[in-house]
Amino acid sequence: MAPRIDDVMRLCCELSAHDQIKVAVKSSAKGAAVAGGTAFVGGLLGGPAGIAVGGAVGGLLGSWLTSGQFRPLPQILMELPPKQKEQLYGNIVGLLDSVEWMDAAQLIALVMGNATLQQQVTAALLSYVTKELRAEVRYGD
User: What is the pTM of this model?
Assistant: First the structure.
């Protein structure tokens, strides 16, 4: 991964840690597997009516299992595949056109020292997280 992408990723991690941002990425595949599995078992045990009951119970269980799993945003960002990191970099780097930096520490210091730039980068980061990752955002504990 290119050093500039790593620098921007570290900046995003620092900003989200500073604001104590947590996100819950919706795990629709996990919920669908639970719903489908319980509908299947319900069908085996109760026939057509069992499929309906199993699907309803599985849907509720799947929804419960996948909701509220908030994790710190820096953790989510570090787990992104390279393609998504590049996409996030593309969204952020345009805001940094006027900033010259040598390493991540300098970039972080420059952005944290400029309240307007800090807000713009944070807004772009949150926009990416909510639109591209379809994540729910929460601040603090």
Answer: 0.69
